[in-house]
Amino acid sequence: MTTTTISERELREAVSMREAIDAVRHGFIDLVNGEFEMPVRTALNDGQFLVMPVHHRSTGSAMIKTLSLNFDRTPAITGTVVWSETDRVDHLVADAGAVTTLRTGAVVGVATDLLADPEAARLTIIGAGGQAPDQVRAVHAVRPLRELTVVDVDPQRARALVHRLEPELDGAGLHTTSDIAPAVRDVDVVCCATTATSPLFAESALPAHVHVNAIGAFRPTMRELPDDLLASSVVVVDDVDAILEESGEIIHALESGAITKDALTELGHALTAGQGDFGKRTVFKSVGIAIQDWAIARLLADKFLRG
Ligand SMILES: NC(=O)c1ccc[n+]([C@@H]2O[C@H](COP(=O)([O-])OP(=O)(O)OC[C@H]3O[C@@H](n4cnc5c(N)ncnc54)[C@H](O)[C@@H]3O)[C@@H](O)[C@H]2O)c1
């Protein structure tokens, strides 16, 4: 057996955010077209270990990601992405932490491109941890930023993120704070990327027109968004089955009666329906599904196995 191993540095050099966004967008369209066989991921020890398999029918390819998560450790997310094809004996193994941040950014880029105001240029991100840089890069790739505000309970983390991203943001105004409400009052896009277990802001803190991405909560006990925001917004999710199992905010809003399951639109369906004037706030909630990792792994396979 021949195995090609891809490090974080090799992944970063090989795949741009723009390519990742396009690959993940096509992945969601393939999902709607029934191209994937994808069980809901297996979570062990209350989500400390995750196993995510997926098979893509027409390419005869499969990807399995294993993750170990520990938010008291740096990096918090580690593991492997393994790519296989029916017609090949060689395999590709990539750094799952790097693939995860890239594909989690990429899906936010896809959703923001579809749902945010075309003129959006002001982003507030809440949470300046491991996922944050690619969240900002993804929004910047689809809505070039004029203003970025970074909010974190740890001000040092917020400053470090701004410092790291400054060279990539083409002169955008950069701000940091630990106070969420003023930071989301007059903004076009909000990204939530925290480990919070209760809503980060009240619905009334947001402007009338805003697009909110929330990728943080991945267990029923975690929440970043309030029920009334979900009740009053167009809500797009990555995958309804995964969301009903893992998204604390959606589970809470369903249990409280704030929303019904019919209120959830899957990203793939929203993409095939096309861009519209949604006329109200839009929310994209993602817990992360294996087709996103498959999409990045396929780019790597094209470049490193066939390239
Ligand atoms: N949806 C997905 O596909 C996906 C993928 C990867 C990670 N995640 C999840 O995203 C979350 C963030 O991941 P990470 O790797 O960046 O974690 P991290 O621990 O590196 O960073 C989280 C940051 O959020 C900050 N924070 C926590 N609570 C806050 C609050 N109430 N207000 C402001 N800041 C707060 C922390 O100080 C920290 O800087 C985790 O829950 C992780 O499991 C989701």
What does this molecule look like?
With 307 residues, the protein is α/β, with parallel strands linked by helices. It has helices at residues 8-14, 17-32, 96-115, 132-142, 155-165, 180-184, 227-232, 240-246, 248-256, 267-273, 290-305; strands at 3-6, 36-37, 42-44, 49-56, 61-69, 77-85, 91-95, 122-126, 147-151, 173-177, 189-192, 211-214, 234-237, 264-266, 282-285. The protein folds into 2 domains: 3-100 and 291-305, ornithine cyclodeaminase, domain 1 (2-Layer Sandwich), CATH 3.30.1780.10; 115-287, 3-Layer(aba) Sandwich (Rossmann fold). The protein contains 11 helices and 15 strands. Strands 10-9-8-11-12-15-13-14 form an 8-stranded parallel β-sheet. Strands 1, 2, 3, 4, 5, 6 and 7 form a 7-stranded mixed β-sheet that branches. The radius of gyration is 18 Å and the shape is globular. Nicotinamide-adenine-dinucleotide binds next to α3.
Concise structural overview:
This protein is of the alpha/beta class. It contains eleven helices and 15 strands.
* SS class: alpha/beta
What is the residue-averaged pLDDT?
A: 96
| Count of distinct strands | 15
Strand order of the largest sheet: 10-9-8-11-12-15-13-14
Number of domains: 2
Largest sheet: 8 strands, parallel
Number of helix segments? 11
